[in-house]
UniProtKB/TrEMBL annotation:
Protein's UniProt name: Ferredoxin
PANTHER family the record matches: PHOTOSYSTEM I IRON-SULFUR CENTER, PHOTOSYSTEM I IRON-SULFUR CENTER-RELATED
Swiss-Prot/TrEMBL keywords: 4Fe-4S, Electron transport, Iron, Iron-sulfur, Metal-binding, Transport
SUPFAM superfamilies linked to this entry: 4Fe-4S ferredoxins (SSF54862)
Domain of life: Bacteria
Taxonomic lineage: Bacteria, Pseudomonadati, Pseudomonadota, Gammaproteobacteria, Alteromonadales
Signal sequence extent: none
């Protein structure tokens, strides 16, 4: 699954620089994640770095974008080749 930032985000600026795929960006009110770029850090790290640094635990798996680890790995390859 791609990740999703919930509305209780406080814009602390911690997640955006941690994303190795540059999938996180400032939206109209809060940070957002581009699901086409989000691999949940598969291929880079053992766990999603944005989740690890989020002070409000507002980053969840996007229930609309269900992806397997294999699909996330394929996306990683496509993004980095």
């Amino acid at each position: 699954m791609a990740l999703l930032i919930e509305s209780n985000c406080i814009n602390c600026d911690m997640c955006e620089p941690e994303c190795p795929n540059e999938a996180i960006f400032m939206g109209k009110e809060i940070y957002e994640i581009n699901p086409d770029k989000c691999t949940e850090c598969v291929g880079h790290y053992d766990e999603p770095q944005c989740v690890a640094v989020c002070s409000t635990d507002c980053i969840i798996q996007d229930p609309i974008r269900k992806e397997t680890t294999e699909q996330l790995a394929e996306k990683f390859v496509a993004l980095t080749s």
